[in-house]
Amino acid sequence: MPRERRAGGGIDRLPSGRYRVRIVTPDGRRLSLGTHATKRAAEAAYARSVTDQADGKPATPSAVTTPILADYASSWVDTRLTKRGEPLRPRVKDLYLMQLRLHIVPTFGTSRLARITTAQVRDWNARLRGPEGPGASTAAKCYRLLRSILTTAVEDGLIPAKPCTIKGAGVEPADERPIPTVAQVHDLVEQLPERMRCVALLAAFVGLRRGEILGLRRGDIDLDRREIAIVRQRQLDRHGNHLVGPPKSDAGRRVLTIPTTLVADLRDHLDDFAQPGDDGYVFTGQKGGPLAPHVWQDAWEKARTEVGIPQIHLHDLRHLAGTLAASTGASTKEVMYRLGHATHQAALRYQHATRQRDRAIAGALDDLIGDRRRSTSTR
Predict the structure, then answer these.
(1) 96 assigned to active site
(2) Pairing of β 19-24 and β 30-36
(3) Three-state SS letters, 36-84
(4) CA 82 remoteness from chain centre
């Protein structure tokens, strides 16, 4: 229903189906007075506000009747939809609940939504970023979550405006991660159990995410065509349940060409360790079931410690894949496709790391400049 514009305010229907009442105060501010289940109730509330203002009574939303943040946030997580109109994935839901439990609810959990102020949010954010807090990255993630929750509260007519207006608070610092060398990757592979070696190879030289690797089935790999199709990911939730679903984003669905040097390794792996049939999982544990993330992590930690690079994460191998792709002269869009990135910003991080490629470009420019100068001098 379109908003009914009136001189003193209006009524509009929210996505939730409830009706929000807004009024314009004598000083020109547009103020939300809350929501109602029916249009009739909203009309009555609007009429009362007009009468109150005519009698000189200030019309304000009731801070006492708004829910506390802990209750509202819990409902928000349960009913939140993605940009594609889908429910939150279990892993994302678990992440939000953890952020709420550890960093948001301890400060704002018992606060009424209408009583949370910008100053309080600023102080909370500063504490998270301080020496006793979890750090700037976690602070930015938690700030964005709180901002999203309170933005929905505004849309629901529970508060007139969101208090999360701190510039830069939601910006996550781009920490420079160490990028292993190709030689270090081969050293790591040698230290891994044979059934797990191709996990590292696919991350480092094809650029797959861990969930994408663990979700691979035999039918996704065509060694004759040197192609691998990424159509799903497999993860575990906090209760240990396997979660199989589509890739992280629409851009995550892709078909990639496998480097020739990996074909023999993958063929041996499929013969020795993969489950039978096109639906069989490529990576398995000792008992033949799907390889569990924690089993992989234990083996990975032992391997990286043995090689002497305990700070390297599996995701850093994916960074190597992006850097190698960029060093070949691949465009940003080509790197985006290969790594399954939905944004240019994610792919651009690999462009600045290709110093050798930049030197090659400079060398080619020298040749062109030199040829041009020589041709000019001979005239």
Answers:
(1) no
(2) antiparallel
(3) ECCHHHHHHHHHHHHHHHHCCCCCCCCCCCCCEHHHHHHHHHHHCECCC
(4) 12
The residue among 6 and 347 whose pLDDT is bigger is 347
Residue of 329 and 280 predicted with greater confidence = 280
**Among the options 18, 209, 232, 254, which is catalytic?**
209
Is 242 assigned a catalytic role? Answer: no
* DSSP bridge partners of 22: 10, 32
Work out the pLDDT band at 10, boundaries 50, 70, 90.
confident
* Structural tokens at position 346: 């994610």
Annotation marks residue 239 as catalytic: no
Is the whole model's pTM more than 0.85, yes or no? no
pLDDT in tens, 182-204: 999 999 999 999 999 999 999 99
Which residue in the list 5, 101, 315, 359 is annotated as catalytic?
315
Let me know: does 49 contact 33? Beta carbons within 8 Å: yes
Task: Tell me which DSSP letter residue 233 carries.
Answer: E
| N-term to C-term CA, the chain | 77
H or E element that contains 24: strand 19-24
Q: What is the pLDDT of residues 207-243, one digit of tens each?
A: 999 999 999 999 999 999 999 999 999 987 777 777 8
**Do the Cβ atoms of 76 and 149 come closer than 8 Å?**
yes
Q: Confirm whether 209 is a catalytic residue.
A: yes
From the list 232, 234, 319, 341, the catalytic residue is 341
